[in-house]
Write a structure and sequence with these properties.
Elements lengths: L3 E5 L5 H8 L10 E4 L1 H7 L1 H9 L4 E7 L3 H11 L6 E5 L4 H11 L8 E5 L7 H7 L6 H14 L4 E3 L2 H11 L4 E4 L18 H7 L3 E4 L1 H4 L4 H12 L2
Parallel strand pairs: 1-2, 1-8, 2-3, 3-4, 4-5, 5-6, 6-7, 7-8
Helix pairs in contact: 4-5, 7-8, 9-11
Length: 234
């Protein structure tokens, strides 16, 4: 499995999204794109189909978290969109993750990559302990959630790049790590507190990095994307 850069298309409308993606029409490497809650809720399933038709791989980032049966039925609906990756919250328990896997898998046995969110990159250890009443360290919590994810049969987890190495150590090198919280060394951190650079994420062992504002808000998004690819993939 090769490494890849996923662009977070965190836009509020189809018109904004396609104005952005039009900049990449001449790129040999069609960017892998993330469709999150804002865009999916604004435009619905059609936005997924349209972006897929343009030749992009898609990570549908809806972070499902509900009772197992509801998640199973929701994943069965999402499976018809033929995305390449989707996710849920590991906090929903092993049973929920198993149900999601069952719902996502088509009759012929095929399915997208399914990953689980451990802790959001906006969550610090202090917030986790004081607000969520999780008394273990953030690293212990993330590794345990990753182990639960593997036990449920999923492919990997979303974690910050800072935890990718320890997740790999606990769950094996084939267990996928998808890591947001990536910024250029000379860029702004924004609202994420556990961040690193594309080059460092590669060194640590991330399989995919998710990059939003450093590309989408760059003066030259194509150049910023190429920089990410050069630092992380090449």
């Amino acid at each position: 499995m090769g490494k890849d850069v996923i662009i977070a298309c965190d836009f509020s409308s189809a018109s904004e999204t396609f104005a952005f993606l039009d900049k990449f029409r001449d790129e040999e490497r069609k960017p892998f794109v993330k469709i999150g809650m804002e865009l999916y809720y604004a435009e619905g399933p059609s936005i997924v189909r349209e972006i897929k038709a343009r030749g992009h791989k898609i990570f549908l980032d809806l972070k499902l978290h509900d009772i197992p049966n509801t998640v199973k039925k929701s994943m069965a609906v999402l499976s018809s969109l033929d995305v390449d990756m989707t996710n849920l919250h590991a906090a929903g328990t092993i049973d929920m993750m198993k149900a999601a896997l069952e719902g996502l898998t088509k009759a012929d046995g095929t399915r997208p990559i399914l990953i689980a969110v451990t802790q959001l990159t906006s969550t610090s250890e202090e917030r986790m302990q004081n607000e969520l009443l999780i008394n273990a360290s953030i690293n212990e919590t993330i590794v345990k959630y990753a182990e639960n994810t593997k036990a449920a049969g999923l492919d990997g987890v979303v974690c910050s790049p800072l935890e990718a190495g320890m997740v790999k150590s606990a769950c094996g090198s084939e267990f996928i790590t998808v890591t947001p919280g990536v910024r250029f060394a000379d860029g702004e951190v924004g609202d994420q507190v556990r961040v690193t650079t594309p080059a460092k994420a590669k060194e640590i062992g991330s399989d995919y990095i998710v990059v939003g504002r450093p590309i989408t808000q760059a003066a030259d998004p194509v150049a910023a994307y190429r920089r990410c690819v050069a630092e992380f993939v090449d």
